Target: Penicillin-binding Protein dimerization domain family protein
Amino acid sequence: MIVNKPKKKKKISRYTVLNAIMILLFTTIMFKLLYIQVYKHEDYKEKADISSTRFISEKAPRGKIYDSEGNVLATNIQTYRLTYTKPSDEKENFYETMDKVFKILSENGEKFQDELILKIDSNGKFYFDFKTDDADTKKIVEVRFKRDRGLNEEIEQELYKDKQSDYTDEEIAKVDSELLKISPEETFYKLVKVYSLQELINPSPIQEEGESDKEYEARVDAYDDKMEAYKKMSGKEILDELLATYSIKDIRNYIVVKDAVKMQSFKGYRAVTIASNIKNETASIIYQKLNDLSGIDVSIEPIRYYPYSTLASGTLGYLSSIDSSKETNYELRGYDVSSDLIGVAGIESSFEDQLKGTKGGTTVKVNSKGRVTEELFKLDSYPGNNVHLTINKDVQYAAEQALKDTMERIKSIAPNATRGAVVAIEVNTGRIIAMVSYPGYDPNIFSIPGMLTEDLSKQYFDPDIESFAKEYMQRTGAKGNIDDLFPVDETTGVRRDAIDVYPKNFFNYATQGLLPPGSTFKPLTATAALMEGVVNEYESMSDTSGTWSKEELGGMILKNFEGVANGATDLRKALQVSSNFYFYELGYRLYKNSGGDVNGGNLEALDTLAKYAWKFGFGVDPKEQNNKSLSTGIQIEENFGQVYNFKSWKDKIVERPMYEIVEALKNGSYYSYSFIPLNIEENENDKDELKEAKTALKAEMKAALEKVGTDEEIYNNSIYSESLVPYVKKIMDLSEDYKAKVNETSQRRTVDINEEAGVICDAIAYYVLDNLTSEIKTPGQIISSAIGQGMNSFTPVQIANYVATLASGGTRYKVTLVDKITSPTGEVIKEYKPEVVDKLDIPENYLNAIKDGMYKVNTSASNGTAYLSFNNFPIKVGGKTGTADFSTDEQYAIQGRLAYGNYISMAPLDNPQIAIFSTIYDGKRGSEGATIHKAIYEAFFKEELLKIDPSYASKSESFRKYVLESPLKDNKDDSIKLENNVTNANNNLNTNTNNQ
Model:
């Protein structure tokens, strides 16, 4: 019997329910997407067109820089800027827009803004235009440029194809090395591919109205096929095709804009500057055509302007784009590294944080063409703070022009007098009134677009040393070999200036140039000698032969300038005639008086003169160096020279390359020691173990020298020689070159390696313990220092401050270029008041004796130009010439180098207000600088001179030329403007904007 069982109701699976829900959701989403993207496409597109928001930044004006009288030295002018922003509308043709823009700029005489460092010269040659003359910085910038454009990727793929982990420092360095091998020309070819310039002749197809889908697809297929072909072509091959239709200049212009857009894209929305500082008329033309220029806009921006052009350029500095090696640092500080300019020298650099303003900007709505449809929010920019300098523009002008004219005047006796510096400082404040570095430059060329021409850029940053070398040797009669004076750099293949004679516009000779003071140092030596009691102001020394020597100093025989004998000489006369004899004797007496002896006992005696020099700012006691800033106090970049002292001199010798012994060992002979030649000089081809052995031997020599003057000093030559044997024998064992020389020598005589090593070590011991140790301990250096030679080397700022310290009676002030900082509304934010940093109480009778001697310098007919300048000057001036040798190496005499022409002065002599130092590199005679000092005094004491003698102008050509006829007008109301930019730019821009 079959029983029908009731059917069980089948349960619905949970998975079935889930699947149904998912199908329903996806169906809803799909319908919604179709609704939005197809049915409502135009509506939503229109909404997008009018609702995209962007923030348009607005540059802030930099703070102004004023002179001491309130004249504006650096300011801002409002100019028009043409920008491009990549539109979101794919139908817009970049090349068509750029062609229209380039045409407008060309027709109106405007210059296209070109920040791409890869340029083409007038001969069609590609080159990198670096805004620096530093070789290492050039390499850093070049590598960063190529990496930012992705040129490293191909190299990395080739070198490390299967690498998965991060690259090591060594691997990165290898890639960088390969990047530097890519020539400028090859870099350009690669950029042609990077930026798909083939689109110029194979544009991406856009379906035309009325065109069928089939026809459009056929064009797309043809386009794709052509693009595939281009992928297989090199950049040069693509460029060759482009050149059939376009010029290389046009092609590069497209790359300039595309490159800027790409670099900006890393930072989100940014407008790319196409042209800056364009004329009002050009701006109006562009406004009228904006609807046809997708992505193009015109705005107002401030640019830096220096009304007095080159005046005080070394002090003011200049602006430049941010170096790629520093981009990260400045990005963290809120800079837009692609467009912001920063101070890179002088006050502009040192006070960057104060001078830079606070950026503003506007949040706007834009349509698909990048056109602003609505302004949502505006944040006003705020100017930077103002910096008020101590420089007086009129005194500065007199100093600059007088220096320039003086160098021109002495060309017949000093053919390479092309560089110089002047510093004038207030005696009782430390304030710098004028500071000149020659040659200078016009800082406007970096801030005003279009002023930095190709020729100027090459002159400043990539000079033709080859041509200069030939001209220099002909002009100066230099007889050295051109390959020695101007050797070819193995890396770059271009000549470099090994003897430092090419004028460097961006090197501040006033604050960075280190030079021997020569005889301008003698008043300091006189001060020390008087205060130590080794001479009095009336003692007379008998100089009958023009030479100075001491029996206990052996062969040391020193001469007066040109060997002239001065007869009976006291302090005043010694300063007047600049007697080396007299001051050599003072240096020797200072040493002996402090317990010094010929054998180098009591080494502290060697610092007797230095202790006074430190008081005048000539360096710092090395024992206290950690507690003292190596600075004069000046607010811009400076070097800081050191006076001769035992420790600094020892350090100098210890760190000096040991050319003498290296060359001697290489030749197999040193004094009475003869041996098989051993080469211990550095050689890249040496194996690492041999390199280490050579380095270890030299380190042992330096270690022995470090012990000189300490309780560990080595005195026994034999013991020291024995300690060197293991180091020397290791080099012998590792050097194949030495083994070959041993084999060669063994053909002539029996060779005992142990004996050879012993002789070499004896020679080294003699070199280190006798020659160099004696050189470290010799009192000859304090004697040379007494006339301002030897290791003495200071900046013009240091020397000027020394003169001011002497003039004040021993009070040394911190040097300052800045008087105060004020807000844009005039409130004083910081004031730089006179600050005493050291004091030496010089007795009045000593000071007067020194001043009398300096006065005789300017009233002695034998002192030529100094006498002609000041003998009848209404204000009493004390001076001192300083013809300082460039080097004690006679080799320099045949290289066209001459002595520095140094000159110091102070006035009025009875109560000095200002002190001055001037130098002319290769100037030959110090007295020639007196004309510069006279011009400065005439500008500074203008009113007083006319009060003393109302007819003074008729008696002084320099007063008329540099003071009365100065072309510099006062600029206290910021009235000196660039032509074409003095109109009401804001009003014009607002009018044009409202008309759109």
